[in-house]
Amino acid sequence: MRLQGQVALITGASQGLGLEVAKLYAENGAKLVIAARRETLLNPAADELRRHTDVVALPLDVSKEAERLVEAGTERFGRIDILVNNASALGPSPMPLLEEYPWDELDRVLRVNVLAPLHLMQLVLPGMKQRREGVIINVTSDAGLEAYPGWGGYGTSKAAFEHLSRIFAAELEGSGIRMYVVDPGDMNTEMHRMAEPGEDLSGLPGPDVPAPAFVWLVEKATEAFARVSAMEIIDRLRS
Ligand SMILES: NC(=O)c1ccc[n+]([C@@H]2O[C@H](COP(=O)([O-])OP(=O)(O)OC[C@H]3O[C@@H](n4cnc5c(N)ncnc54)[C@H](OP(=O)(O)O)[C@@H]3O)[C@@H](O)[C@H]2O)c1
Question: C-alpha angle 66/154/190, rounded to 5°?
């Protein structure tokens, strides 16, 4: 699939990894549907992206208004070809142990990181199935595999997100839709700064480093389902 002319919905595209992926998709000719809660960050990001492509940008919480986002995108562009579930909640900073995890915060982390992307997939899949084509990219973390103390809320949500993606992919076998679970690796972003307050993260790569892997997954990957490391893809592209 070439990005040129495709419609990509990217959540959390006002900053960090989501914005870097959105920039590359825009530069490659995709039309964009993007969302994040803070208008102060979303509006300038959308303006920058509009220099390259058509953009629908909605300031909303994906755990509350998934339908509105998909409706706005399909109303404007007629379809969604690519869904990048990137927006994510870390939970409280500093991160509490599971034993002490505030219940309402855990509820919110699971709604944003598991239920919202599941809902978005449910909303875009009928159109993709009809066209027998589509790409869904779900952004995960090594915290979904490794048992890091203190990362229990976020890590549990990413583990659940990964597993529901696997089951979804099994249910979609033969549909023509491809699904990828992608670990971008450590990046110097707001989320990582909240996860490790006070730490010097200047040595970490910026989110622009793994972003080209998201172009590769749409344009070059062929597997119907895979869990991949963005940095392994980048290393392969560099060598
Ligand atoms: N940074 C790392 O080291 C790292 C490592 C592994 C995996 N990841 C994953 O990579 C992805 C991107 O993370 P990042 O580091 O780029 O984060 P980031 O810089 O903090 O950006 C997060 C984006 O998501 C938006 N967002 C958060 N909650 C939202 C909600 N409920 N509804 C709509 N938008 C929401 C944010 O905008 P608003 O806050 O204004 O809504 C922002 O645009 C996440 O899935 C994360 O789990 C990151």
Answer: 80
Supply angle C-alpha 33, 35, 39, rounded to 5.
125
Tokens of 188: 């110097």
Q: Is the CB of 196 under 6 A from ligand 1?
A: no
User: How high is the pLDDT of residue 88?
Assistant: 98
Look at residue 53 and give its three-state secondary structure.
coil
Summarize pLDDT for 25-62 with one digit per residue, the tens.
Answer: 999 999 999 999 999 999 999 999 999 999 999 999 99
Say whether 154 is catalytic: yes
Among protein residues, the one whose CA lies closest to atom 30 of ligand 1: 61
According to CATH, what is the number of the domain 7-238? 3.40.50.720
**What amino acid occupies position 206?**
G
| Any atom of ligand 1 within 6 Å of the Cβ of 63 | yes
Residues 6+ apart with CB under 8 A from 111: 63
Claim: this prediction has a pTM higher than 0.85: yes
Map out the domains of the chain as residue ranges: 7-238
- Does the Cβ of 85 fall within 6 Å of ligand 1? no
63 three-state secondary structure: coil
Q: Is residue 7 classed as helix, strand or coil in its secondary structure?
A: strand
Q: What is the pLDDT of residue 28?
A: 98
**Cα–Cα dist 31/125, whole Å:** 18
Helix (H) or strand (E) holding 49: helix 39-49
- Using one digit for the tens of pLDDT, what is the confidence trace for 119-177? 999 999 999 999 999 999 999 999 999 999 999 999 999 999 999 999 999 999 999 99
From first CA to last CA, the distance across the chain in angstroms is 23
